[in-house]
What we know:
Number of strands: 0
Shape: elongated
Radius of gyration: 20 Å
Structural class: mainly alpha
CATH class of the largest domain: Mainly Alpha
Order of helices and strands: HHHHHHHH
Strand content: under 5%
Helix content: over 70%
Amino acid sequence: MADSRLMDTRAEGERGAAFLRLADAHLDAAYRLARVILRDPNEAQDATHDAVVQAWRMWSTLRDASRFERWFDRILVNICRNRLERTSRSRATNISEDVALAAGDPFSQALDRDLLGSAITALPPDQRVVVVLRYYLDLPLDEIAIRLDVPAGTVRSRLHYALKRLHAAIGSTEAEGTRR
């Protein structure tokens, strides 16, 4: 009886050590992904922490450790999406100040990057997540579909509408800049 408890304890310790190795190896990349999605370092830290806690609780559901990164990213993206939905209900993002700053500024490349970041921030959470996974992580559409657990057609649709919104937001700011 004591031997079986000792073996259970040892197996539990090995499983915990495996989780810590995998999570630690992916922690920096996970934070960067959350940072790009949420655009707030504190929110990104909290989301990454929540994802590690949730992944630990769900650790027994991962059948293949070689798929840890994909599995963990799905958890992280869902947590980020929930945070975005919660904050988007409480406040809207106004990009008009970014537009005004971008017109005629010698630091236009940096401002353009800020403008694009603000336009991405204004996207609905599902569209923002797809844009970040596609253009920040450079994932193919099929891989995004797997990580989000949605059909590839849904990913294409979200990306299409997100890019349409981004073009409209950026196009309207360029038009305003030429009128001044």
